[in-house]
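ok, trying the design again with the full structure, not the truncated one.
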């Protein structure tokens, strides 16, 4: 086979979704939800890796099921929904959905992010109950923060596929580490404190007053307005390729780098006797976590003391004699290393 034929086949494979590892976004199909199906807390997660944030009023983030429509026809079965549950109109109020990416994942993606002729492409499906203009942004975290924003005018109750190619910029910085490097936001609604931008589709030093241009849809002022999203993909290049579907087990392991907990209330991790006066219990994380996590652990009885916690495992012990006849075990745990 000629090299030209090999390259042609490779390009065709990418177009058909055959090259894996293209999508820098984790859980873009919204299929994993370790914490639960919904949250009302600002900063809370429903589908893993996607949180909502609000100021003024309240909103709910939930994981929903697809049974028809354009995303369903492309293999999606879930979406995340932000619902406006109590209205707000203050100039400093907002509603937004976000995911965050590690800086090293951008630095090592192959994107020449310092060059205006090198691109990444962000694509996603979106549906709104309230027609109008909605803003979407990239926001960097290393060095001087920069923001790239663009808007889409959406019709009501219709799934729309959005694709945006985003160029590099000489001022961007992404450190080669496991800290946050890029925030990807759907700015569902922003009060007037944030809507003084004069232009879009360009990088600019971050200024909270210039996140969006004016004229966005009054989502926060509309009771029970909804914003739906799925099929979120960020990939190298100037063209979007078909969404990279992957099996749930692979996506779960990626999500557990940032968060995991025991999956059943009936599951217990028992302490074992390691000296005559102490018992120890340990939990090995399913994968190495992004960083040493915060731990929330409860025990059946006894006074346990944690003595080891890092991105690989957790250890604790209880003073207990071999002959005391009691069982000691963990009743629940969760570990959080989110960005």
């Amino acid at each position: 086979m000629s090299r030209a034929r090999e390259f042609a086949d490779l390009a065709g494979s990418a177009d058909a979704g055959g090259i894996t590892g293209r999508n820098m976004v984790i859980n873009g199909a919204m299929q994993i939800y370790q914490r639960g199906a919904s949250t009302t807390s600002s900063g809370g997660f429903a589908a893993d890796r996607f949180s909502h944030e609000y100021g003024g009023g309240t909103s709910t983030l939930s994981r929903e099921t697809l049974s028809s429509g354009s995303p369903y026809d492309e293999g999606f079965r879930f979406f995340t929904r932000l619902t406006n549950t109590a209205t707000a109109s203050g100039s400093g109020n907002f509603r937004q959905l976000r995911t965050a990416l590690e800086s090293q994942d951008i630095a090592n993606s192959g994107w020449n992010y310092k060059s205006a002729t090198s691109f990444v492409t962000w694509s996603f499906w979106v549906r709104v109950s309230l027609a109008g203009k909605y803003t979407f942004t990239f926001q960097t975290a290393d060095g001087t923060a920069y923001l790239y924003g663009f808007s889409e005018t959406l019709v009501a109750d219709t799934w729309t596929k959005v694709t945006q190619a985003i160029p590099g910029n000489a001022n961007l910085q992404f450190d080669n580490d496991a800290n946050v490097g890029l925030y990807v936001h759907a700015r569902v609604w922003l009060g007037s404190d944030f809507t003084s931008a004069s232009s879009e589709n360009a990088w600019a030093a971050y200024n909270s007053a210039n996140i969006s241009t004016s004229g966005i849809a009054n989502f926060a002022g509309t009771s029970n307005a909804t914003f739906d999203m799925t099929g979120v993909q960020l990939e190298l290049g100037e063209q979007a390729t078909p969404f990279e579907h992957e099996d749930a087990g692979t996506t779960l392991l990626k999500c557990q780098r940032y968060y995991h907990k025991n999956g059943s209330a009936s599951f217990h991790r028992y302490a074992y006797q390691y000296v005559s006066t102490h018992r120890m219990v340990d939990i090995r994380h399913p994968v190495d976590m992004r960083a040493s996590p915060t731990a929330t652990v409860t025990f059946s009885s006894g006074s346990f003391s944690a003595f080891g916690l890092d991105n690989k495992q957790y250890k604790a012990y209880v003073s207990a004699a071999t002959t005391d006849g009691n069982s000691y075990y963990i009743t629940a745990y969760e570990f959080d290393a989110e960005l």
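Keeping the full-length input from now on. The radius of gyration is 23 Å.
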